Structure formats: C-alpha cells, structure tokens
Task: inverse folding
C-alpha cells in the first residue's frame, strides 16, 4: 500500500457509522488499514462491523445517544482512556425540515445539540489527547449548506455553518502541534437524510438537473476524501473544507 494513504496501526472513531456516509467511511478506513471504533445511537452495528472485519481489521462499538450532551464529556473520556483514537470522523447528524416560523424550540435544540454541541464535546476530548501525542486527524462532515442557506432547514444550515467555523478555529489552534482539523462537505448524497428530497417530484429534478456530474452522489463517493484527510498524504492540509458535490458549487 502507498505509504501516503496507509492507515495501518491507526484507530479511527467514526460517529454515526451504522449506515450511509458514516458506514461507507468506516469501511473505507478499514480498507486503508485502520482499526475502528464504531459509534451508533443503538447497538445495531452488525453490518458495519462485519464489513470492517472482512478487511481483517478490528472493530469495537461505542453506543451513545448524541442528542443528550449531559454526561457526554465523561463518556468520551472513558472511551479514550481505554482506546487510542488517532483519527476522529464526526459524521453523526440529524436534520429537521420545516419553515422557520413553524420550527419548534425542541427541533432547533435537537439539531444544534447533535450536529454542533456533541461534535465539539467529542472533538475537544479527542483533540486534547492528540495534542499530547503531537499527532492526529480530525474530520467533520459539513454540508453544501455550510455555504448556502437552503430551504426549510434553518437549524441544520446554522449547525453546518458552525461546523466549518469550528473546523477553521481548531485548525488555527492545533496545526502547530501536529493535529490536522479539516471537514468534508458532501453534495446531494442518496442517504436516509435526503429520502424526502429524492421522493419529491418537484425538488428532485430541480436538484439532479443542477448537478454537473448528472447524478446524486453515493456514500462511496466520500470515501476517497476521508482516507486522504485521515492519511499522511494530508499532513499539511489544515482548516480545509473539501467539497465532494459532483460540481454543484461550481455551477
């Protein structure tokens, strides 16, 4: 394996790794040689674990509802005390769709808690240990809505703008000490989060017709970017947001 993309001997924690983008990235990191800590809301990670182990890599599970931040700092510290995490992929996230004037406080708080507060809490804990070792990779999943406003997704858009801001701020603080903090901004990817859009007879053709690549992305389309940002090949890449969008932002 090319040393620039070899993750042998490293362990990656991927949040939200049961399905979709998180699952694809976890399996892709295993293919590149990493062992995995698989996170899920519920203990239903059999499929992802089997796929990781098929590449002869180990996989342990961390089950935690990230919608509840109280106690999360202690829980992640407990995990990190037992397991060295060299690569953190902040993938877990939720979306609530509604006009802003109809959005309840509970929906706003749920999205911001999972997509931002939990991400910072986990990143802070993992980053502290990486800084002590003077090596580490942190990758957060942003969005096209880190750059645009979207429609009927005020909380999600705010949270993903914040993820990019946090990525850049932490890169400024941590790059000097050997920890690279970056993000991936997926385009329109066929996952559970976009099922409603893909089923919408009006919005779906509007979206697919605007993508220069001519198709929706798949979770597998994110794997190369994740391996790059997790590997030695990206050791001088800091505070970057890598869009994987089929050309959407260039349109």
Result:
């Amino acid at each position: 394996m090319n040393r620039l993309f070899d993750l042998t001997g490293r362990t990656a924690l991927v949040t939200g790794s049961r399905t979709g983008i998180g699952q694809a990235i976890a399996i892709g990191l295993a293919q590149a040689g990493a062992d995995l800590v698989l996170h899920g809301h519920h203990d239903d990670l059999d499929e992802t674990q089997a796929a990781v182990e098929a590449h002869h890599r180990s996989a342990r599970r961390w089950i935690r509802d990230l919608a509840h931040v109280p106690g999360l700092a202690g829980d992640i510290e407990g995990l990190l005390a037992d397991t060295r995490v060299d690569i953190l992929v902040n993938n877990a996230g939720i979306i609530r769709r509604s006009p802003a004037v109809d959005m309840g406080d509970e929906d706003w708080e749920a999205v911001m808690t999972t997509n931002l507060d939990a991400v910072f809490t986990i990143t802070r804990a993992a980053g502290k240990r990486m800084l002590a070792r003077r090596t580490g990779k942190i990758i957060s999943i942003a969005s096209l809505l880190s750059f645009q406003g979207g429609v009927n997704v005020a909380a999600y858009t705010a949270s993903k703008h914040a993820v990019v801001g946090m990525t850049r701020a932490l890169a400024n603080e941590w790059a000097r000490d050997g920890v690279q903090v970056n993000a991936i901004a997926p385009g329109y990817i066929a996952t559970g989060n976009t099922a409603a859009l893909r089923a919408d007879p009006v919005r779906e053709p509007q979206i697919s017709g605007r993508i220069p690549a001519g198709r929706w992305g798949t979770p597998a389309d994110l794997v190369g970017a994740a391996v790059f940002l997790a590997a030695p090949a990206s050791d001088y890449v800091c505070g970057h947001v890598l869009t994987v969008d089929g050309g959407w932002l260039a349109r």
Q: What stands out?
A: The chain has a mean pLDDT of 97. Residues 105-133 form the longest helix (29 residues). The chain is about 40% helix and 15% strand.
